[in-house]
Each structure stands twice: as C-alpha cells, then as structure tokens.
Amino acid sequence: MNYQVAVIPGDGIGKEVVPAAQRVLEAAGRRWGFGIDWTSFEWGCEYYVRTGEMMPSGALEQLAPHDAIFLGAVGYPGVPDHVSLWGLLIPIRRRFRQHVNYRPIRLFRGIDGPLRDNGKDIDFVVVRENNEGEYSEVGGRIYHGLEEEIAIQESIFTRRGVEGVMRYAFELAGRRRGDIVSATKSNGIVHTMPFWDEVFAEVAAQHEGVRTSQYHIDALAALFVQRPEVLDVVVASNLFGDILSDLGAAVAGSIGIAPSANLDPSRQHPSMFEPVHGSAPDIAGKGVANPIGQIWSGALMLEHLGQPEAAEAIVAAMANVFDNGGPRTPDLGGDASTDDLTDAILKEIAG
C-alpha cells in the first residue's frame, strides 16, 4: 500500500527536519510493508516574500486528494505571524474540517526536563478545539491612531464545534487511563465559558466510565507545573489549548520535541501533521535543529493512516535513543547534529 502525502517543508529549519523525518517514515514503511508517495509544495513565508501570498490560489484543491498533509515549520524574518497563520495554517484547518488539535506531552527518560526531579512519569494529551473559539475573524478596529481607537475581537463557540472536540476527547480518555480535565474560565468569561462547561457536562453524562474534573485556566496552568503526572487528557478551547500545549511541551523538556496533529476525525478530508516549534531562523542552515518534533508528528500521521505498529516503533525508537544516552541536539543540552540524532533513530528502527 502506498499513501499519498502532501509535503510543505515551509521555512527555516523546516527544510532540514522534514527531510530527516521523511527518512524515518520511509524506513518504517520498508519494515512494515507500506510506501509513501510524497508531493512537495514550496509554500510558506519565504514563498510569501517572493509572491505576496502564502500559497497560490487553488492550493487547497491541490491538497484535497491526498491522504495526509505533512507540514514543516512556517515563519520568516519580516513576515508577521498573523500573515502565516491566516494565510496558510487556518485556511487548511478550516477547509479540511480539522477541528481537533491533538498534542501528546511526554517526558522521555534521559531528557532533563525542568521537572525531572519530581520522579513521576509525565504522559498526557492536550485536545484543543482547532477551528473556532477565540481565533475568530469576527471583529474590527475603528478610529485608527486616535485616542478613542477601538479594537473588537469576538469569540465564536458553536454547539457543533464544542461537542465535536468534547466527544473526541472523551473517547480518547476512554482508550487511555479514563481521566479528563476541562479547561475553563467561566467565573470571568460569562457567556462562552459557561456554555463550554454545560456541553462538557452533557457529554460527560454520556461517558460514565470516564472520570471528569474541570479547572479554571490559571489553576490548570499551575497544575501543569506542579503535578503534571496526574494528567491524562485535557480538553480546551482554541486559545487555552494553544497556551496549555506549549506549556506542556516546556514541561517535557523542549518545544523542539513536541508534535501535533490537526485532525478531521471523520476522515473525509486530509489531516495535517506538524511540529510545534517555529522555523528558528537563528539556527537555520546550521544542521543542528532537533528533528524529534517533526519525526513524532510523522508517527502521529502513520497512526492516523492505519499503521499503528510503525507509529509505535518510531516513538519507541526515540525513547530508546534518549534512555540509552544517545545523541542530543543543542536544545537538549548536547552537541549532536540533526543527522546524528536522525541516524540514531533509524538504527533503532532497523533493529
């Protein structure tokens, strides 16, 4: 079986870690009997500098026939972040109904995370609503540059969107350890967050085997730092999930190892898999970027495509490299290159 995967390496270190991850995925394919046909699209911020757009008209139609989208880092000096987000990432997420953002957080043995001395295993998932909530285009500004200038940004929470991410999170918790935490702020945000809480309670009543709790976002952020080992599945709105998942990556030792999946659970459209780290122009071209976030994102892609054994083997290979004192890139306190770490993972996969 061959999977059709669209590749957008993006900018900066994306052009280094994406090829590294492709090598690992191809090695897994050889071992488990599948292939990947890559179609590369050179879109992103550097493309924007040349053309004035993040991707060309008709780009979404070019992506649509693929089984998945494999995205690298996007970002370039001089290009505002909102240009890359609204010009490429959000259109892809919304056009392909990728309403679930899946972010695993795991502290690997051998990684000196800031909380390593707590002696506890850290292994949880943040499930973030991915298409609406606080990230809305509804709003505007008037009286530009005057003392009475006003900026208005509206949050949009739909029952379909909130129920969808809640159901995914509850089903995931049922397959894991059976615990789910909801991030809220209904004491201060008086309309959308009480609605979020109400839907959480409704979906919880349909999943009696899952243990539930909810925390205000500020208290939950503290829990991430003080007792992350108690977490299993965390479900959150678009903004809260964005912040919490990056905090979780820091707890796990480096944002350079954090993966993510933008999922259409219905599988009617291609899902997109990308690392959390940015394009890191300060180290781009030096060959020292950490490829783990991209490789782990690739493992999530294989799991979604129906290759769980290969996906598990890739994650196990990463874990073995760290546990056995293997190479580490500078962000993890070592001096290894991107290729050094990739080669060590490839060796583990080969057995």
Q: From the alpha carbons, calculate the radius of gyration and give it in angstroms.
A: 20 Å
Oligomerization state = single chain
Mean of residue pLDDT values: 94
CATH architectural designation of the largest domain:
3-Layer(aba) Sandwich
Query: What is the CATH first-level class name of the largest domain?
Result: Alpha Beta
Enumerate the strands of the largest sheet in spatial order, edge to edge or round the barrel. Answer: 2-1-3-12-11-4-5-10-8-9
Distance from N terminus to C terminus (CA atoms, Å) equals 23 Å
CATH topology of the largest domain: Isopropylmalate Dehydrogenase
Descriptors:
single chain; 351 residues; alpha/beta; Isopropylmalate Dehydrogenase; 2 domains; globular
Task: Describe the structure in your own words.
This protein is an alpha/beta fold and 351 residues long. It folds into two domains: 1-99 and 266-351, Isopropylmalate Dehydrogenase, CATH 3.40.718; 114-251, Isopropylmalate Dehydrogenase, CATH 3.40.718. 41% of the residues lie in helices and 19% in strands. The chain contains eleven helices and twelve strands. Strands 2-1-3-12-11-4-5-10-8-9 form a ten-stranded mixed sheet, sandwiched between helices. Strand 8, helix 6 (192-205) and strand 9 form a beta-alpha-beta unit. Helix 1 packs parallel to helix 11 (338-350) and helix 7 packs parallel to helix 8 (238-251). The longest helix has 19 residues, at 14-32. The two termini are 23 Å apart. 45% of the residues are buried.
